[in-house]
Amino acid sequence: MKEGSILAKGDFSLLLRSGVDLNGIDKHAVRTVTVQTKKSLIEDRVVNEGNPEEEFKRLEIAEEDRVIGYISWKMYSHYMQAGMCTIVAVAMVTFFAIVQGSLVVPDWWLLRLTSRTHDRQNQTADLCIYGSLVGGAFILSIMRAIALLNVMINSSKHLHNSMLSAILKAPVLFFDTNPIGRILNRFSGDIGILDELLPDVFVGAVQIVLFCIGAVTLPSFLNPWIILPATPLMIIFVLIGRYYMKTSRDLRRLEGINRSPVLSQFSDTLVGLVTIRAYKREHAFLEALYRFEFINCVIVVFL
Q1: I want to staple 262 with a disulfide (CB 3.0 to 4.6 A). Which of 36, 43, 203, 292 is the partner?
Q2: Rounded Cα–Cα distance for residues 65 and 160 (Å)
Q3: Which residues form a coiled coil (predicted)?
């Protein structure tokens, strides 16, 4: 090219045979670009060398974040979406309603039997129907628990894979500013809670909530006056639950954060074990490990 127009095109040998004056290329432009590039690199180096404190702050180990306050419904939504899609969620809600209805039907049938005469109450057909309703409700309850457990396991699996993918794609600066114990804590402690504790607690909570709704709904149809004493009791129950959850939630978060220094101290000790033994600092590292464990155990006692 010359002054923005194409003189010829092809490989180097073809250009030589075509008689194009390659020496006439504007070398000033190439030289200008090269000088400007070198100048920008020198300026960047001067800026970086002029602010060593900023470079040092980038490498500082940041404190572990701790969420304060209630867990938003958006967080629950993300957790459930990690285990099932929207269509499956609608099907699960419908199935839960059917199961809860099946748990109420035996009580309704038993109430119907008690309103009959003594001779009609001893009929075999009615007793078989009652037994079938109880057996069906039992089977549906087991199916509900299994379905919910599968959703919880899928959520834990997908969240673990997402976190692992993010760790593998993280830059080196992330590992310089986050101790290895903090990363291990996320993969061991938090994922362990998702795998072991949360499914059992979540299934139990869903069953208790649905049981309370059914226990209040059916008698309310038969005797609406039950709503009057049930309403203040429900309000008191909700207030006590919120007060307990506020304390328990913060303690659980503190326990999760204070577990990271224990793992960090243990992993750092294993990495520098030869140096620690060479300088005879075993006792100091053991005291530091015991101190971190004591702080963590004190919080666990209150959970």
Answers
A1: 292
A2: 19
A3: none
pLDDT tens-digit profile of 198-234?
888 888 888 888 888 877 877 787 788 888 888 888 8
Please report the sign of the dihedral spanned by the C-alpha atoms of residue 182, residue 184, residue 187, residue 191. Answer: negative
Beta bridge partners of 2: 5
CA separation (Å) from 220 to 66, 105, 114, 212, 257? 44, 15, 18, 12, 46
Distance CA 253, CA 147 (A): 29
Radius of gyration of the chain (CA): 34
Instruction: Show Cβ contacts of residue 248 under 8 Å, excluding neighbours closer than 6 positions.
Output: 303
pTM of the model: 0.63
What pLDDT does 242 receive? 85
Angle ∠(21,25,30) on CA atoms, nearest 5: 160
- Are 219 and 226 in contact by the 8 Å Cβ rule? The answer is yes
Q: How many other CB atoms are found less than 10 A from the CB of residue 163?
A: 15
Average pLDDT of the residues in 238-266: 82
Q: How many CB atoms lie within 10 A of CB 232?
A: 9
- Counting DSSP H helices and E strands in the chain, the numbers are 14, 0
DSSP character at residue 193: I
In this structure, the number of other CB atoms found within 10 A of the CB of residue 222 comes to 9
Which stretch of 36-45, 179-188, 261-270 has the lowest confidence by average pLDDT? 36-45
CA-to-CA distance for 255 and 249, rounded, in angstroms? 10
Which has more confidence, 300 or 196? 196
Three-point CA angle 192, 193, 194, nearest 5°: 90
Tokens at residue 119, please? 């001779």
- CA neighbor of 197 nearest in space, from 256, 237, 242, 254: 256
